[in-house]
Amino acid sequence: MPLVTTTDMFKKAYDGGYAVGAFNINNMEFIQAITEACDELKSPVILQCSQGAIKYAQFPYLVNMVKAATEATSIPIALHLDHGASFEICKECIDNGFTSVMIDASSKPYEENIELSKKVADYAHSKGAVVEAELGTLSGVEDDVNVADDAAQYTNPDQVEDFMKRTGVDSLAIAIGTSHGAFKFKPGQDPKLRLDILEEVVRRLPGFPIVLHGSSAVPQKFVGIINENGGAMKDAIGIPDEQLRAAAKSAVCKINIDSDLRLGMTAGIRQHFAEHPEHFDPRQYLGDGRAYVKEIVHDKVINVLGSDGKA
Ligand code: G3H
Ligand code: 13P
Ligand code: ZN
Questions:
Q1: Centroid of ligand 2 to alpha carbon of 279 (angstroms)
Q2: Residue 211 pairs with which residues in a beta bridge?
Q3: pLDDT tens, residue by residue, 94-117
Q4: CA-to-CA distance for 38 and 20, rounded, in angstroms?
Q5: pTM for the whole structure
Q6: H/E element holding 47?
Q7: Which of 68, 76, 79 is nearest to 28 (CA)?
Q8: What is the whole-number distance in angstroms between the Cα of residue 278 and the centre of ligand 3?
Q9: CA distance linking residue 208 with residue 113, whole number of Å
Q10: Which one of the ligands is nearest to 54 CA?
Q11: Half-sphere exposure for 295 (CA within 13 Å, toward CB)
Q12: CA–CA distance, 259 with 238 (Å, rounded to integer)
């Protein structure tokens, strides 16, 4: 089937008490691993690209590989821009066939966030695409967004109704204690999400789809494989599965996962070279990385998102 927007996916997820996985893609192996796992489990899926991923892989490759995945599978697939920093990049993605974009103006003053999010929503809606915006800021590092721990702030539930009314965006990312990357908490810290803030947001925006960024669990199996095979990922800690499950059962309809897939790919490649130092055929080591990415997506769909059988 052709690429879809997230509108129908989110409505069903909200009503059904589950979430759809939004997995970051950078190359063919990620696209295949994610969509094969979701196809096997009959789960809808969102493939998302950061601006860094677009710079790395380029529009024609990314868009056409994702279109190939829609032909190779029978599940609903949305193509989404992750953390768009400007109106121009959001427009470029929509013009290149993306069905959904995120405008991330969360680090700007409130009124500027509203103005830019509305501008993107107006353009996206005129082209049949949908928009995610963000209120509150997550800490962590991505290629194009870098927020220090002390600059991060929880979403203020008092702002959400006004923000939604004035922007007209289709979903809202909120900050409740998740963060980007593989080092989300310090050892000994209590990895607790502020589900009370989520509840308060839901009370003010009943029926509205909420998004959680920074939701990798950092599975210790893969951290272990990396470290046993020459890696250095001491004290990598993520969000406990049960807290994400609770969010997915509530109004959270989209859960973003990137770091876990990076761990899987890196674990497969490191393990491959430790076992076969003589190999130099990329299909062999990339194939092992891809297999681990697929295993992780399988686990997310069944044990965290609850989206299996919902395609
Ligand atoms: O939250 C963002 C993703 O993890 C993407 O990271 O900008 O390094 O591609 P990236
Ligand atoms: P993680 O770094 O926790 O995987 O978060 C990814 C993300 O939020 C992408 O937007
Ligand atoms: Zn994010």
A1: 32
A2: 173, 254
A3: 999 999 999 999 999 999 999 999
A4: 10
A5: 0.96
A6: strand 45-50
A7: 68
A8: 37
A9: 19
A10: 1
A11: 15
A12: 9
